[in-house]
Description:
Layout: H1 20-24, E1 40-46, E2 52-58, H2 60-63, E3 68-72, E4 82-83, E5 90-91, E6 97-98, E7 104-110, H3 113-122, E8 124-129, H4 136-139, E9 153-161, H5 164-170, E10 173-181, E11 193-198, E12 202-207, H6 212-222, E13 229-234, H7 247-262, E14 266-269, H8 272-278, E15 285-293, E16 299-311, H9 317-327, E17 336-345, H10 359-377, H11 381-388, H12 408-418, H13 421-427, E18 434-446, E19 455-462, E20 468-472, H14 481-493, E21 500-502, H15 521-548, E22 555-558, E23 561-564, E24 571-573, H16 574-583, E25 589-595, E26 601-602, E27 605-606, E28 612-624, E29 630-640, H17 647-666, E30 672-673, E31 676-677, E32 696-701, H18 723-735, H19 746-759
Parallel strand pairs: 1-14, 12-13, 16-17, 20-21, 29-32
Antiparallel strand pairs: 1-7, 2-6, 2-8, 3-7, 4-5, 9-17, 10-15, 11-12, 11-14, 15-16, 18-28, 19-20, 19-25, 22-23, 23-24, 26-27, 28-29, 30-31
Helix pairs in contact: 6-7, 9-10, 10-18, 14-15, 17-18
Bound molecules: ligand MTE and dioxothiomolybdenum(VI) ion (MOS).
Amino acid sequence: MTAQKLEEPIRRLEVPRLDALEKALGETKYTTDNVEEDALYVRVVRSPHPHALIRRIDSSRAERVPGVVRIATARDIPGSNYIGYVVQDRPLLCHDKVRFVGDSVALVIADTSESAELGVQEVKVDYEELPAVFDPGEALKPGAPKIHPGGNLTARHFVRLGDAEEGLVRADFVVRGTYSTPIQEQAYLETEAALAYPKSDSMVVLGSMQNPFMVKKAMATVLGRAVPNVRIIQAPTGGGFGGKQDAPDEVCSMAALAAWLTKRPALLAFSREESAAFHPKRHPMIFDREMGVSSDGKITAVRASILADGGAYASLSERVLFVAVTTAAGPYEIPNVHIDGTTVYTNNVPMGAFRGFGKPQASFAAELQMDEAAERLGMDPAEFRLRNILKAGSTAPTGQVLTSSVGLEECLVRARADSAWDAKRRTGPGQGEKKRGIGMACTIHPEGLNGEADAATASVEITAVGQVVVKTGLTEYGQGIHTGFVHIVSKVLGTSPDRVSVVMPDTDVVPDSGPTVASRSTVFGGKAILLAAEKLRGKLAKVASEMLSCPPEVIVFEGDTARCQGRDDGRVGFEELVSECFRRKLNLKEEGTFVKPLPFWEAGHGDLSPSYTFAVHVAEVEVDTETGKVEVVNYTAAHESGTVISRDQFESQIIGGVAQGLGYALMEELILKDGIIRNKTFLDYHIPTAADVPHIRTIIVEAPDDFGPFGAKGVGEAGIEPVAAAVGNAVYNALGFPIRRFPFTPERVYEAIEERASRS
Ligand code: MTE
Ligand code: MOS
């Protein structure tokens, strides 16, 4: 692909990204940069088998390795061994059996990382191998190896609206297909790491993570009464993408266990190979899907079944499945919907949260099938979508009537115009070996924790010298959310952004604002912060009104001053105003809590969230039919996420999401053979580099939302959601037939072309 050209001059950012300079200068201290001399190093003994009973663990030789301080097994855990977000099915250290290649069996704690590594090699585990199962369909069959005591079914979900059978019968035609999506590895730059410090009556753990309060909860399970006081501090975190939702529960608990057993600080940091082997990844899913369409281009019904491989432990499979099932019909008005989803245990690496959380998979199946139906109709795919897409007041496929902002249609119209869609569809693929194609895909993203109650609390405090300090449990791991919080506070208080700081989450210092997942920080954290800042503004306005002699309602805060609206005579500076408040012994600390209206979900239908974000992407590709190579030559991403708080952050999230989506669409393919990951490093697991990413044109549609701060909605995940589908439809347009599985690697595309040629 061609390298991104700088088409616009570099602009000055409205609010400079808080962490940018220190990261660019290499000054940021990640977890492993904080190790002190007396720290011990922990390494994990991992299972080489996908499924086996543990007969005996012999650590005697390992204990004699110079530098090894201690070996820990399940027997050394003072609390409970079982952790997990949804189902507590994952042992921190396996004691009776292992369920995937890489499952944790013991910890080796040593003076140096090298000694610990040598110790790992000397721990002898007697395994009795069990038959294993790697295919989710096979895992559900009677007689399949049973991975957990309760069997191999992890969860089921469904959606029911109208009568799908009837809707398919009434249709003028039905399109059917099986679509499959690959595993994707989060590939964050910083691998997992935790540093635990024992104190006389407590334990402090510093680590790379998304959810410190969830780690604290896990620690209460693992350490239990042995260490009642645990304090979790989030270190600067080099990427999460969902992979650091639940995995840090284990990493931090292991480091803490080592520190508790030895009474010394202990570091556990993973190599790239270990990271790849261990943390939950994007679920591969298979969609059997049929869609009924009338001859005038209206969708009459969608019926689908989804099968997800959840790997060896539950992780977030149940939640990811819920999102895939409830968005599988796509962002369309469909009167009859029948969707069933199942997620299954196998002896593969666990699957869990990854940016998009089930939607990139659902979008691929739905959007490819949309184009197949458009072809049957002889209708332009953009036109076909326009006839069916959700608008304000529409009933979504889950039965919810959409009341808040719905900017999908405008996204589609503008992406179509921006990409010169109509002209390019007319031109067609061309005559040569290199075929051009242009494809479109839409996405629907329900805000926040879908179908669940959700709330967040934050505090804002003004110090005597006029610094504004924001405390929230919502973490920064690359999204730029803390910079977004600064925007919100400085807007409400009319201060310059450099007065405002956001405290690094520390469970002893900040409130629990819920997990930093599901693109929820802008809406939940942002709104809680806005509410707190507004309370402070009310207090400041009262004092300013007395100082300036005008009613508090007309006090305007801007440019670090307060003044009376419509009057230019007097102003009071922010610091002076704050000093006056302190003289009057006013408390300038406020809390805000935002509670989402409780969604209704029952018997396969209901509300997922009060509001939704939308996107329409258009990809243009060139497919070399001689080699199968797909090159993305143009890309347009139109997004509606309510009001935009920071344009720079917003666009960078979209561009990052698209880049990660292009990796998913074109090259990322985790090779799993008999449960063993064959490509654990970036040498063979390819992710896009800057040279692989074309210029991505972003279009921002603003449709203010009823709930979020200033009408904003989240944007963290949506950028990745329609990418594989847009690329898939562009490849379809170039070749004249759809390829229903990806990544669109040269081999896969070439084979599809050959197979097609042999059939005709
Ligand atoms: N962007 C960067 N740079 N790094 C990340 O790890 N994670 C994504 C997305 N964008 C991620 C990212 C995921 S999985 C989520 S849920 C959202 O950010 C969270 O964003 P929010 O803080 O805006 O809610
Ligand atoms: Mo994001 S997958 O919700 O951390």
